[in-house]
Amino acid sequence: MFTSNPFSELSAMSEFITPMVMQGYVVLMVIMVIGGTIFDMMHKKSAQYFFENAKKAQKNAKCTVSSGEKVSLAVQTVTSEILTSSEFCNKRRRISHLFTMYGFVLFVATTAIMIFIYPTPETATPTILPLLWHAGALMLCFGGYWFWFSIRVDVAAEGVRWYHLERADIFIVSLLATATFGLIWSYLQSSGAASSATTLGFVLFIVASTTLFGSVMWSKFAHMFYKPAAAYQKKITKADGSAENLPADYDLTDPAVQAKFPDIPQYMGKNPPNMGLGIKREAPNHY
What we know:
The chain is mostly helical. The chain has helices at residues 6-13, 19-44, 46-59, 67-82, 91-116, 128-151, 153-156, 170-190, 195-214, 223-240, 255-260, 263-268. The chain folds into 2 domains: 6-240, no CATH class; 250-280, no CATH class. It is 66% helix and 0% strand. Helix 4 (67-82) crosses helix 10 (223-240).
């Protein structure tokens, strides 16, 4: 199972599902993701808000960020927000997200490679590719199911049952279904199970993946594309001093700050306590 290319075996067993059909399906899914993302950004006007907010920040900038600094901030965004998901303060949420993210990348990348380069048994598939395909699906399932049953907000904070579904859940549910049915289909195919069972597993896999890539505008899928851009813009606003048009972060114990805002010592004393981030004081088990 773990060393066999399920797509090359599929093309050998079925006269209808040829390499061209599989490749056409992958291209169609890519088009649906691109189109869905563009439509989502137009519908929600997130791109318009992003550019307008960037122009507003430029007007309030207190200094100019050099090209070198911008490159450095871009590298920080890639290594921090994208590769290591440092924005998650909760360690369990961060680990779950990383397993899901890297599992998804492995799963999708190896799927494309096996379908476009090794679609038939005549072109021998390197053993590493099926291994990575199955490992990616397992990583995705581990991180995704951990999130769904243990970390998900409405389970941890609101005590809602795990089977309580909302439209926003379409992404994670279809993602988990795609990886799960992909593993089941691969197992049934490699174990020589009845053709009806193998066909059912494959059909469920295709239905789940089509739902995943075809429902971009109703899910959080598009969020993955413009989230890094928003994170990069936030770093730029900190570097140029505009700070997203928010007030400065003052040290309330600074005499100069207390002189500027005389109501601070009046209501909080000359040595105000550091309130800190209350959200980090305890686990989010309630609202």
